[in-house]
From TrEMBL:
Keywords of the record: Membrane, Transmembrane, Transmembrane helix
Domain of life (superkingdom): Bacteria
Protein name: DUF2069 domain-containing protein
Transmembrane regions listed in the UniProt entry: 7-27, 33-55, 67-86, 92-116
Transmembrane helix listed as a keyword: yes
Length: 127
């Protein structure tokens, strides 16, 4: 019996989700009643830039490397805000603004992949 083959990019997304979840719980107040319900949209927003690069079959390696870069920069921003910077009431805004910067980087990364394919004469829609 063989195990089903999984995409290594999904593992990147899973590890990133665990780290972001840990930081959210560390910065938040999960003892309050609606905290988990209110944190779901921010968790989805935080995961979306990395997920954008983790799904899709074309140029999987290039997108996977991009996902690693975007995830590392996100973890650095969250870690710095949660554990290094002085506690501040606006610290939670990192879960709004870091994903926006990550989206910008992800779109630039995807544009670079597309441009490289065009420059090399490959059809970007090919696998």
């Amino acid at each position: 019996m063989s195990l089903p083959k999984t995409d290594w990019r999904i593992a990147i997304l899973a590890v990133y989700a665990l780290v972001v979840g840990f930081v959210m719980v560390s910065m938040g107040r999960p003892s309050e009643a609606g905290w988990f319900l209110m944190s779901i949209p921010f968790m989805l927003l935080a995961l979306a830039p990395v997920a954008l690069l983790c799904f899709g079959k074309r140029r999987a390696t290039a997108k996977g490397v991009g996902a690693i870069v975007v995830a590392i920069l996100g973890v650095a921003a969250y870690y710095h805000t949660a554990f290094i910077a002085a506690p501040d009431a606006q610290g939670g805004l990192v879960f709004l603004f870091a994903p926006l910067y990550q989206f910008m980087l992800a779109f630039v990364w995807l544009l670079a992949i597309w441009a490289i394919d065009r420059f090399r004469g490959k059809d970007p829609t090919d696998a």
